[in-house]
Structure formats: C-alpha cells, structure tokens
Amino acid sequence: MKIKSSIGPIFLLLGDILILNLALGLTLILRYGAFPSQAVFLSHLQPFAFIFIIWLLVYFIYDLYSQQTVILQQKLSTLIFNAHLINSIIALAFFYFIPYFAITPKTNLFIFLVVSFGGLIIFRRYAIFAFNKQNETKVLFTCSAIEVDELINEFKMNHFYNVKVLNNDLKEEDITTLSPLVVINSHDSSFTGSLLNFYNMLFAGINFVTIDSLYEYVFGRIPISLISERWFLESISLSEKPIYDTVKRLMDFSLALSLALLSLVIYPLVYLLIKLDDGGEIFIKPKRVGKNNKLISLYKFRTMTVGNDGGKWDRVNNKVTRVGSFLRKTRIDELPQLWNVVFGDLSLIGPRPEFEPAVLKYHQAIKYYNVRHLIKPGLSGWAQIKQSGEPHHGINIDETKVKLSFDLYYVKHRNFLLDLKIALKTLRILLSRSGV
Questions:
Q1: In what side-by-side order are the strands of the sheet with 181-184?
Q2: Nearest 5°: CA angle at 279, between 320 and 260?
Q3: How far apart, in whole angstroms, are the C-alpha atoms of residue 379 and residue 360?
Q4: How far is it, in rounded angstroms, from Cα 84 to Cα 58?
Q5: Tell me: the pLDDT tens digits for 289-331?
C-alpha cells in the first residue's frame, strides 16, 4: 500500500518518548529555576522511565497510535486528557504506594503532567503537520461511490494524510506527468473496458491501488458495497493456522477459566439482587448462531422480565428490570459467558454472536452476512471497539451492515496482535462503561 500517512506509529511512539523526556527536563527547570544536574535528572528519570512504559501502553489503548482518522483528530485533546487522567492515577499509585524509589514528587508530578500534556498536543497538531508538508501524495480516483466521497473527505480534513486529490478528468498524458496513485475498482464490471489503458500506464511508472484495499487501510473495515464474490476468494482464507489456533485456544481456556473462577464471588450478590427485585430466575440461556451457523446456548444473568424472549426484542411485556439495567451497564450480566469460552462455544475475541431470527433476516437483507460465521464468535470483537454509539437491540439493517464491515476485516486479518489490540481496548471500554 503506497498511500499512507507519512507519520507512522513508530514515528509517533518515538515522538512521544522524546516529548516525555523533554517534559521531565523542563519540569525540573521550572521547579528548581535552573538546569538540573545529571544526578538530579537521573534520580527522576529512573522511576519515571517505569511509568513512561505504562503510559505508552495507555496511549496505545486510547488509540493514539492507530490510524489517524477524522474522528480521532476531532477528539485528540479529549483522548490525550483522558489518557493523562488515567496516567496520573498510575503515577500517584506508583510513587506513593510502592516504596522503592526515594522520591515522592508531588509538585514535580503536577508540573510534569501539565507540561507533557501540552507537549503532546503541540507535537501531534503542529510539529507533525510541519513534517508532513514535506511529502505530498497525489491521488486520482477513477471510480465513484459513497466510499470514494468518504475517503476524499478524510484526506481533506485530516492533515496526517498529506494527500492531494486530483480531478478525474485528466488525460492519459497528464496522468503520466503527475504520476499519481491511481485508485481503481477492480470489482466493477466496467473496469475491464479501461484495463488496457491502465496496463499501458504501468510502463510509465504509475502505481495502482483498489478502492476496497484503500478504504480498508484507512478506516479499518471492508466496504461491502464495493466488493464481489471474487474478493472473498482472494482475501478470505480459512486454512488452518496451527500455531495461532492452538495458542489462541490455550489463552482462551486459561484466561476464561481464571476469570470465571474469580467472578464466582459476585454470583451470590447478583442472586440476592435479582431475587429481591422480582424474585425471578437468575440465569438464562439464550440461543445464538455460532461457528458454521450452529446454534449455541449462552449463559447470562437475567436482565429482563421475561428470561428468554426468543429474540423478539419488540415484545411490549418484556422490559429491562431495575437490577438488569445495572447489570447491563456494568457488563456483569455477561460474566457467565466466560464458561462458554471455557467449554469452547465462544472465544474471548471474535464477532459477537446474534439471535437466530435476526441472523435469518440479516442473511436475506445483507450480502455476504454469513461469512462472519466462518470463525468462532467471541465475547468482544473488532466491531465492538470500532463502532461508535450504543447498540440497537432490535433488528437494524444499516447498523448491522457497518458491524459486518468490521467483522469481515477481522475475519481477513485475525492474528495475535489484532487480538491483543481488541482485548486491551475492550478493557478500556469496560472500565469507562462506554462499551458498545
């Protein structure tokens, strides 16, 4: 993929490390009114180095090293502030509850938090922009679609991409002179009519990229309306991955069993709350569609007046109970599903399973919907950490199309690193109670 931000994750990581070290030095200057001696600087750098590592992990969880989309740019200050808030708690706990280091820098820590926050904002908004201006990528779209408009808007609004979009009425000699990256839709039936001209351009050094791969790279999801069955044959491989599959199952089993056993201490309290609320049953076992379209029974704490409504969310007489609302907000209602992971029905990471009635409707209304069932479903997935807004518990075609585009991305790219990314960001969602 030639088109990309000239500011990659490694550059951002190195920049943040530099900013944190400079912020520490500036903090000591402001605190003591002079350049610190080497001994003073090192006495602070040693303990701060430990929290820097943890802070960088927090920045990763808060999407500060992800593809820099418009949404992230609009919320950049808020993201850095929230990450700093978490990091402040970590730093306080580190210095005041771990009596290993001799310093307890109350004033220094406060100054450092302010200085580093400002430094990160300046670095990501201004220094990166100045650096990015040095390399401009020209892009020519030879296809049209809503997704093309989304990409053009992204490139215009986001300075992390130093992209100039060319008018699509250029002549072949102009294209050869400008040497842009040409975006094509190889799944369009009219594409073959222009194939000969595109082929000749290869000898002039022109580079090409398909619209679906560009969209996938920028937004982290598959544009369903732009792909064909050929895309699945070329992109989706279900061949066995012995190392990945074995290690993932071992991790699923060990982590889920540990968490399931630890969560048993909460069960008596949940039992008491539900019985005091309406006296109904504690557990429900709703049916969901699992791998290869096989039905599986999930274990959950009951949160509605009717234990199992068969997927008919619109029933007027089935409402969320008072205790059920609390269990849903805190995600406690899903703790019993850890046993589904232990037994092998679910994975910790994978597409979230749906009710069978909903799946039947989605299969009829959305092309390629059942592809998501080629792999084992999970407690959390790529769609859950990427899709914004509260989930719709009824049948919603438009929302599900977006969710499917993320699920297909996971089916195509699933690996250890992506699973770890989903797991860490799921933890952040759970802690912030803003999950989807």
A1: 163-165, 137-141, 181-184, 207-210
A2: 75
A3: 21
A4: 9
A5: 999 999 999 999 999 887 765 555 555 567 889 999 999 888 8
The tens digit of pLDDT for each residue in 136-175 reads: 788 999 888 899 999 999 888 876 777 889 887 788 777 8
Q: Enter the pTM of the model.
A: 0.80
Q: What is the DSSP string of 393-410?
A: SS--HHHHHHHHHHHHHH
In this structure, what token pair is assigned to residue 222?
Answer: 């598959």
**Spans of all domains in the chain:** 9-132, 137-219, 242-432
- Topology of domain 137-219 in CATH is Rossmann fold (3.40.50)
Phi, then psi, of 110 in degrees rounded to 5? -65, -45
Give the burial string for 339-372 (b: 16+ CB within 10 Å, else e).
bbbbeebbbbbbbbbbbbebbebbeeebebbebb
Q: Which amino acid is at 236?
A: I
d(CA 270, CA 335): 11
* pLDDT > 90? residue 278: no
pLDDT of residue 260: 96
Mean pLDDT of 390-394: 58
The radius of gyration of the chain from alpha carbons, rounded to an integer in Å, stands at: 26
